[in-house]
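FIELD: query
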Amino acid sequence: MGATMHLAGARSAGQVPSQHDTLRPAPARKRVLLAEDDLEMRQVIRQILESIGVDVLEVSSGVALLSRLADDGDFDLVVTDVRMPWMSGEHVVQMARVAGFEMPVLIMTAFADEKLRRSVEGIRGTTLLEKPFQMRELVDCARGMLGIA
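FIELD: result
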């Protein structure tokens, strides 16, 4: 007895699919580079981002973020904290832009002041998200920046 293969669009087993019933490759998942020095916060943010169907690569510093971009700059979104050891997230984003990386960047901070807000507004393709934020705020912001529903 032969095996039956079910194809998308076929109405019943054994029916030959029409020319409109083509097999489509799965869409590529969006990739997010997350930089946060606090391990627990990084894990929570990673889980939230993964819940919307994106792949997340984590780093723990701005220096590591720049290194990862240099090795593999193919990310759809960068999410970074402002306050990290050695180099602020804001400075990292400025350096990434100078190096030619144009993906959108979500900058998180618990220490937003008017100077930081103006500075972030001056960096193209960035959005500032102030901590503490609700999970829904992060999800909505990331989805919007990634262009996913």
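FIELD: remark
The longest strand covers residues 31-35.
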